[in-house]
Amino acid sequence: MPNKQLWAAIHAERAALAEDLAMLNDKQWASPSLCERWNVEEVVAHLSAAASTGPLRWIGSALGARFDFELHNSRRLAEHLGPTPADTLSQFRQVIPSTTSPFGPAAAWLGEVVVHAEDIRRPLGIAHRLPIQTATEVAGFFSRRSFTVKSKEAVAGLRVEASDGPLANGEGPLVRGTTLALAMAMAGRAAFCDELEGPGVATLRSRLEAPSAKS
């Protein structure tokens, strides 16, 4: 996708997530997400932080945390965690049209919102039809490059093929499934291996479940 189209997809996925979040009750906001260390509301605050932090501010924050990135992320998240879930959602709505990001290509930030949205939706049983072009862009990026997670390493030496789209990358034992399930697995969500098939799935799962793969 051209950069302009990538940002349009980011804005569309943020807007779709905001609409789903508006339907949640307080218990759901406090429930665990697939991002192990954060609940639903904290994931939303993290997304707001990422869309509000440019390169210079990111560097200043990382320096202030002495490059302890868990502390850095926690501080930025806390800035966007409102006194109530409604306030947290309001802050997220404000960044829907943002094109601000710390570093990296737009495809990485499309992956950020797609993966974290699924981190929220899947445990809550919320269905979302992700456009196949968007899913393909994210999964393709993850298979070619490691950015915030070791996605490229996760599928090294494996053949990744989508059952619902054009994605087909790599050589080796086959890992096949929906484009979204492939993207989520490459992003470190081992549970999505249950939705994949092929002789390469066991290798992928073992890599994701290794202690060094936890993120």
Q: Please, could you describe this protein's structure?
A:
The chain is mainly α and 215 residues long. The chain is 55% helix and 5% strand. The protein contains 11 helices and 3 strands. A hairpin with a 5-residue loop joins strand 1 and strand 2. The radius of gyration is 17 Å and the shape is globular. It starts with a helix and ends in a 6-residue tail after the last helix.
* Count of β-strands: 3
What fraction, in percent, of the residue positions are helical? 40-55%
Tally of alpha and pi helices: 11
Summarize the helix and strand pattern as letters.
HHHHHHHHHEEEHH
Question: Strand content of the residues, in percent?
Answer: under 5%
Structural class: mainly alpha
Radius of gyration: 17 Å
Main beta sheet: strand number and arrangement? 3 strands, mixed
N-to-C CA distance: 27 Å
Overall pLDDT metric? 92
In what order do the strands lie side by side in the largest sheet?
2-1-3
Low-confidence parts lasting 5 or more residues at pLDDT below 50?
A: none
What coarse outline follows from CA principal-axis ratios?
Answer: globular
In short:
It is built from eleven helices and three strands. With 215 residues, the protein is mainly alpha-helical.
List descriptors:
215 residues; mainly alpha; three-stranded mixed β-sheet; 11 helices; 3 strands; 5% strand; globular
